[in-house]
Design brief:
With 402 residues, the protein is an alpha/beta fold. The protein has 2 domains: 174 residues, 3-Layer(aba) Sandwich (Rossmann fold); 164 residues, Rossmann fold, CATH 3.40.50.2000. The chain contains 14 helices and 15 strands. Strand 8, helix 7 and strand 9 form a beta-alpha-beta unit. The radius of gyration is 22 Å and the shape is elongated. About 11% of the residues have low confidence.
Length: 402
């Protein structure tokens, strides 16, 4: 059966929501018929390359007055919305008018900070509610009285063929990378403070901050007050190809958020074999295995964040050129194919002088653990497999009731 799915989105294409473009592109590659109803045009300078490569722009309607007629002509099996806010309100109304099943994905701000007042009613009318972390699901159950069997936990996926480790070459200066919207919830002024602590400790580093938004002025002011212009670089919003380039330069990724669902930027870091340090909010602890793929620290704790970053950066710096370096070669999983991973480590050879695991090997072990985790559960193929299974069951259930 060829699925026919209509999406309702707040805006499309939006650079800070590349996870939606990835999802749509993978569905398109699988032959799923799509219609995209976008409430707004983001009018951004950069557009995700996948949007053009997979012809997604040809599927977009941006006039809400035309949504119903377009849906009647398209005849979808199901309507799906991203975010529990306005897109789900519109999807719910259209589904009711056209007697179609609908589902929606709840992410972060729509669960914790700005949920719709009628979240429970929207969930009750939906066939299923998808959310991106177990922490989200627990909150939704308790806060909005949504039954557990109504919920499906499906993290957003990453294209592990694009997001992959680069060469073994290390940057001369240890590099921290943060990819985030410049918004209050991302708490990026804390990152500036952390950089100040690292500088004052005499640790050589540079921090690349990728993104843009309304708190840019605050970040620039904090950077100037601490005299961090040479250490902290604000790169602005970048296309995905350049974001991948930043991750391949990174020694560690960082996120200081007050609130999160399951941050895609940390998944991208993992896919590139980059350990991360992040605040312990939302589903981050489900992604970051403490001491194995990175560290989580209490929200707002500048010194704890600096301590964790220093531990990773000093370990990575001592690895460069070391004869004990663990090397990992991975082949990204392709839909339908198993993922092969080959690990070669001198430290694993009996009698080798490098046999004892030391702190200098910590970050390398984190790197390949992060990559393996991304390959096994964070790929876009894994996400879309789960998503289409939910949809097929929802459609079948609706047809049985008809």
């Amino acid at each position: 059966m060829t699925l026919r799915i209509a999406y309702v989105l707040k805006s499309f294409p939006k650079l800070s929501e590349t996870f939606i473009a990835e999802e749509l592109a993978e569905l398109r590659r699988r032959g799923v018929e799509l219609l995209i109803c976008a409430l707004k045009d983001p009018q951004e300078e950069h557009v995700h390359s996948l949007v053009a490569e997979t012809g997604l722009l040809d599927l977009v309607i941006r006039d809400p007055d035309q949504f119903r007629g377009a849906l009647e002509a398209f005849r979808p099996d199901l309507i799906h919305a991203h975010f529990a806010t306005e897109p789900t309100r519109v999807a719910r109304e259209l589904a009711r008018e056209l007697e179609l099943p609908f589902t929606f994905t709840a992410h972060g701000h729509d669960v914790y900070r700005k949920p719709p007042a009628d979240f429970g009613e929207r969930a009750a009318d939906a066939e299923r509610v998808i959310t991106v972390s177990q922490a989200n699901a627990t909150h939704i159950r308790h806060q909005f009285d949504v039954p557990a069997d109504k919920l499906a936990v499906i993290p957003c996926g990453v294209d592990v063929k694009r997001f992959s480790p680069g060469s073994d070459a290390r940057q001369e200066v240890p590099t921290i990378v943060c990819v985030a919207r410049f918004s209050p919830v991302k708490n990026l002024t804390m990152l500036v403070q952390v950089c100040g602590v690292l500088r004052d400790r005499g640790l050589p580093f540079r921090c690349l901050l990728v993104g843009d938004g309304r708190t840019r002025g605050e970040i620039e002011q904090a950077r100037a007050e601490l005299g961090l212009e040479s250490e902290l670089q604000l790169l602005g919003a970048l296309p995905q190809s350049e974001v991948i380039g930043c991750w391949r330069q990174a020694d560690v990724g960082v996120l200081c958020s007050h609130s999160e669902g399951m941050p895609v930027s940390l998944m991208e870091a993992a896919a590139c074999g980059v350990p991360v340090v992040a605040t312990d909010v939302g589903g981050i602890s489900e992604l970051v295995e403490q001491g194995k793929t990175g560290f989580v620290v209490p929200p707002g704790d500048v010194n704890a964040m600096a301590d964790a970053l220093e531990r990773v950066l000093t370990s990575r710096a001592s690895i460069a050129g070391d004869p004990c370096e663990t090397r990992v070669t991975s082949r990204a999983s392709i839909a339908g194919d198993p993922c092969e991973t080959r690990v070669t480590s001198r430290a694993s050879i009996a009698g080798d002088p490098c046999e004892t695991r030391t702190s200098r090997e910590l970050a390398t072990e984190m790197s390949w653990n992060a990559r393996l985790r991304a390959l096994s559960v964070l790929s876009i193929q894994h996400q879309v497999d789960s998503l289409t299974s939910v949809w097929e069951a929802s459609i079948a259930g609706e047809r049985q009731m008809a």
